[in-house]
Amino acid sequence: MSTIAIFGANGTIGSRILDEALQRGHQVTAVVRDPAKITTTHPNLTVTTGDVLAPASVAAVAKDQDVLISAVGGGDGPGHLATIKPAAESLVAGLRTLGDAAPRLITVGGAGSLRTPDGKQVWDAEGLPEFLLQIMHAHGDALDFYRSVSDVRWTNLSPAASIEPGERTGSYRTATDDLVTAVDGSSRISTEDYAVAVLDEVEQPRHLGERFTVGY
């Protein structure tokens, strides 16, 4: 069993990560701005307030945890755009204050910077709406920042091109910087199976200091 703190635990992706972590028997702290939005009750769950954009708050939440997960900016709309890279910088700054006692950091990334089979990147596709492009590039900027960090144990997990609530199958395929696609060319993952991949990484770290991606 691990102790896990989750920023953004009430979001579309964060809530699935929360549920998966509890189902596996981990001790979880849900970190949100409004605790009333967490309706889950469980003996292994603690709910607290925190600000992902404040390094001191990050450090307070992360202290004595095994893993810190951030699902902030994980796909809940354009309102999260302004927080994606600043959150990355704040998370790292907060963890740095804990030194060697800092937990591992796993963050929800974006699919935009993944390579497609034609050698381009997802964000190069024609017809993407401007707000979506902005979110994609914000996640790309955050990833560039993480890749400059060597003193915090981080992992960034990009979803498939399409991620939405669906079935938990427990199955997925992984890659590092290449979009995972099916035989028909589609690229998708359910939020439930994305959460499975996050918790698999919690329990068996395979991607320290790098980005990886999942899809069917």
UniProtKB/TrEMBL annotation:
Organism field: Streptomyces inhibens
Listed name of the protein: NAD-dependent epimerase/dehydratase family protein
Single annotated GO MF: oxidoreductase activity, acting on the CH-NH group of donors, NAD or NADP as acceptor
Start and end residues of each NAD(P)-binding domain: 8-201
Lineage top rank: taxon: Bacteria
Entry-linked InterPro entries: NAD(P)-bd_dom, NAD(P)-bd_dom_sf, Polyketide_Oxido-like
Alphabetized SUPFAM superfamilies for the sequence: NAD(P)-binding Rossmann-fold domains
